[in-house]
Amino acid sequence: MGISGASGVIYGVEALKVLQGLGQPCHLILSEAGARNLAIETQYSVDEVKAMATRVHEISDVGAAVASGSFLHRGMLVAPCTIKTLSAIANSFNYNLLIRAADVTLKERRPLVLMVRETPLHKGHLELMSRAADNGAVILPPVPAFYHRPQSIQDLIHQSIGKALDLLGVEHNLFQRWGEH
To answer: Is 31 annotated as contributing to ligand binding?
Structure first.
C-alpha cells in the first residue's frame, strides 16, 4: 500500500485499519507529503499509521522486497494517489519506492488500484489516467456512492475502500451492497 500526499490520507489510514482488522498482511510506503497530510487532515501520527502495517518501507529504499517482481503479493493500493504519483506511474518514472512498487505490480500483471484525488481534472490528468489504465492500473477516484444509505463520513470512506478491496480480492463487509437492502 502506498500513501501519497494528496488530500484524503484518511482513505489510506482507514484501508490500513481495515486490513489490520481482517488479519491481512500489508506493506506500507508513505511519502513525505503523505506524512505531512496526516498531521493536517487527521488525528493520527506517522508512528500510529506505521504501526497499522505489517511492514513499513522507506520511500527511498528502491532495493526493498516490494521493488522486485519475485515478491509475491495480492496487489497494490495507492490511497490517496496524487497527480504527481499518477504521472510517475503512468510514465514508469521509478524515482522512489512507491512508484517502483507500483510499476512492478503492473509488470507482474497484479492489480494496481489508484485512488486518484484531484478535482477538477484537466485533459492532462485524464490522459495520465488513461495511460495508467492502458498499462493495467485501475483508476478508482474516491467518489461517494449513496445506495448504501451512508450515515457518516466513515460510511462514505468505507464504501470507497471496500470497492478497492474488492478489486484486490479481499473479503470484507464495509458497506451494504446493491440489492442487499
So the answer is: yes
